Amino acid sequence: MICRRRAANTIGHLVLLVCWLHLVPKALPQAGISEKHLRQGVAYLEQEKYERAVQELQKAAQLSPQSYASHYNLGLALWNLRKLDAAFNAFQRAHRLQPKEANSRYYLGRIYLARGDHTSAIRLLESLVQNSDPRIADEHYQLGLAYLKAGNPEAAVEVLRQASHFPPQDANVYQALARAFQTLGKSEEAEKAFALSSRLRSEDLEASQLLHLCRQQLEARDVGKAIETGQRLCRLSSV
Fold first, then answer.
1. Residue 100 domain-assigned?
2. Cα torsion 160, 153, 176, 82: sign
3. How far apart are the first and last CA of the chain?
4. Omega within 30 of 0 (cis) for the link into 168
5. Is the peptide bond before 134 cis (omega within 30 degrees of 0)?
6. Which residues of 71-93 are buried (b: 16+ CB within 10 A; e: fewer)?
7. Angstrom distance (rounded) from CA 64 to CA 52
């Protein structure tokens, strides 16, 4: 399964990388050479070497054009490079191979949103929200953002309120909710949402710093301190 939550911080990015690695064994192409390129491409994704990942994943997709994993991960690499048109094409090919797979549709919806095609974004994201089990906060957030940009703050408030009840809590959800309340002239609700957004951003920053510290401690083989830092991070995440 692929994690679809938007990776706005280091923790979210690491979660995505773990999910990428879990996808590969489920959809590996049979050809050994193609498999080699796919695995190398995912390894480069883990290292955030997106240009190299694209090179490997393009080769994998060319050798095994029916490989969902190759096209999907190619889309992810291109997405991280902000090459949206090329990413769109890769996700579209992945979607054609597995139409019921939600992950490629999620990114297609986000690219539509980035392009300003709010109607297409809403159509895709609504279908994801309606059929998602378990509920995913980021899908609701992206749909709420699409409603807001399309000039429908009432619908945005409804779906963003839903997003605020699903883990993990995201500062961007409350930021968008505050903007929707502002548009509707509900200043008191907007102030509360802005305050929550600010608090969550501070917690995200602290978590990112702790994660970086934990990495350094592990690299220094100071396992005891790394465990202590990890426990602090877990306590922060459970707040």
1. yes
2. positive
3. 26
4. yes
5. yes
6. bbbbbbbbbbeebbebbbebbbb
7. 18
In this structure, is residue 136 part of a structural domain?
A: no
Q: Give dist(CA 159, CA 141) in Å, integer.
A: 7
Q: Which residues contact 75 (CB under 8 A, 6 or more apart)?
A: 87, 88, 90, 91, 94, 104, 107
Q: Give the domain extent around 33.
A: 6-112
Q: Confidence band (pLDDT; 50, 70, 90) for 3?
A: very low
| Pure H helices in the chain | 10-23, 32-46, 50-63, 68-80, 84-97, 102-115, 118-131, 137-149, 153-164, 171-183, 187-219, 223-237
In-domain check, residue 98:
yes
* pLDDT tens digits, one per residue of 87-145: 999 999 999 999 989 999 999 999 999 999 999 999 999 999 998 877 888 999 999 99
How many domains would you assign to the chain? 1
**pLDDT category of residue 239 using cuts at 50, 70 and 90:** low
> Does residue 220 sit within a domain?
no
Q: Return the CATH number at 99.
A: 1.25.40.10
| DSSP assigned state of 169 | P
Query: Cβ neighbours of residue 178 under 8 Å, at least 6 residues apart?
Result: 189, 190, 191, 193, 194, 197
Q: 142-180, pLDDT tens digit by residue? A: 999 999 999 999 999 999 999 999 877 889 999 999 999
Compute φ and ψ for 101, nearest 5 degrees. Answer: -75, 125
* pTM recorded for the entire structure: 0.76
**Residue 235 burial (CB count, 10 A):** 10
